[in-house]
Amino acid sequence: MAILTGVIVVATLIAMTSGRVPPVLALIIALLVAGVAGIATPTELFSGLSNGGVITIAAMLVIAKGVLATGVVSRVTFRLLSGVTTPGQTLRRIVPPIGIISSLINTTPIVAMLIPATKELQQRSGVPARSVLLPVAHATTLAGSMTLIGTSSNLIIAGMAAPYGVQLSMFSFVPVAAPVAIVGGIAVIVCSRYLLKGKPKAPAKDLHWRVEIPLSSRSVSVGRTAADVGIARTAEYELIDVRRWGESVVTDSVLEEDDLLVYRATESGVRMLWTSPRFGLAPHHLFAVTIDTNQSGSIRDLQDDEDLLVVAAETTKRFRETSLRPGRTVYVSTASRDILTHHPLVGLWQNAAGKAPQPGKTWIALGVLLAVIVAASFGLAPVELAASIGAVAMIVTGVLTPRSAVRALDWNILAIIAGSIGLGVMVIESGLGGYLSGAIIELSAGSIPLMVAVIALGTTVLTNLVTNAAAASILTPVAITVATSMGVNPLILLILVGTCISFTFLNPFSHQSNLMVMEPGKYTTSTFVRFGIPITLVSLVTAFAVAWPLLTFWH
């Protein structure tokens, strides 16, 4: 069975790495073949579907969506990066706080939020997004490995280790992961200066869209100027007027409730303004609608009730002075798609942007996240239960709607993680894990330093070939067996594995965050390899230097 399992596992990993087969499909086929071959029972193979780690990951995705929906990361990022002029200065300011956040919530939505923030920084200050995005992605990955909930692989390791009597708590990974995150973060900043050089191209933008956004009482911009909060000018938009009670005031005035901010913008700038958390807009979607009418009137006539707001149109005039014309595209927001469906002036419409951020819910969302962390850290509740309660709290308190919470669940990632756990079960039940453990012990020749080096290097190679979930599922039972055979503390060895699984720096397809920044940063696979090699070497050396003394001390 061990040989057959080895063939299945290798074939699955090759299929997942090639990119020709969806990873979920490759894993499902592997589990089905293993079930037919009798390697393990169906209950064992599909145990990942009810695994506590998978449940926790799903709940934390909802919690992360709730926190990010308040726009708090965007606001904090703007304050941190205010006045920066170089990539090095940008990274020194942003890496430490983003690293802390990454250890508490899933890194993927954080990177998603930082992509538009770095683009805005490039337009505002001339700092190339290329010099910032990849270092930030790697820094968040390193920092995410410091806690149990910071990355999915740690949760998988904890779930698979529990039956062996090895208990991993919220901060068990800190002794190895924290030094690696600090040293690796420094390496990321230093290497980016020499390996990610580039100047942003700044072609002239055609600001032919007029945008009118009212400032609500919920806005964080009230009492401050537009420049103070970063909504005055970028390459994508420019504030041209502030209207107060129907009269124009200077654009650098202190903003007040109900002010109407008027912009010239590109079409991308329209979406950027809408998704900014600084206006306190209603939690509505932005829609691009096409006019379907032969009646006379103005664009403002679209806004025939308080449930629809005209946001942008291609015009240099006020909306009330811009005539309706069949085929004209206008951006509007509304609480219900039904209003657009039955509106007599709307011919076609499509969703253009998600709901506007809701900064008024910031403290509720942060309070829920803090409660989950405290409950899990002090053992007040199992981590999966604490996270699930937190996810429900995001809905009950109105931070997220039930539909938004469901959309926060990345079913593809969850399925890959669940399937990867089944792959680990195959390795255990077939006896393949014993052979792998024996090979590591033989290579180590009874030497703890050599054993640490073999496991750290093997984990790093595997995690850059396949998903971190698959690497965690395969290596967890192997590490426990090696620790038992060599008489060392399995907890430290599992912490080492969990830390090294985050070294996904060489292959853009080995981590979701890598793929997310690849296009915005204009990176290639060779960029990842060139930038990733020194980061990987520094991280490996640090992990070895920390784990070896710990294992020797608890030998």
Automatic annotation (TrEMBL):
Residue ranges of domain Citrate transporter-like in the record: 16-498
Keywords: Membrane, Repeat, Transmembrane, Transmembrane helix, Transport
Keyword Cell membrane annotated: no
Compartments, record wording: Membrane
Presence of keyword Transport: yes
Broad class of the protein's primary localization: membrane
UniProt topology in membrane: Multi-pass membrane protein
One Pfam family cited in the UniProt record for this chain: CitMHS
Transmembrane segments: 25-46, 53-74, 94-115, 136-161, 173-196, 362-379, 385-402, 409-428, 434-458, 491-510, 531-551
PANTHER family linked: BASIC AMINO ACID ANTIPORTER YFCC-RELATED
Protein name as catalogued: SLC13 family permease
Species assigned in the record: Gordonia phosphorivorans
Source taxonomy: Bacteria, Bacillati, Actinomycetota, Actinomycetes, Mycobacteriales
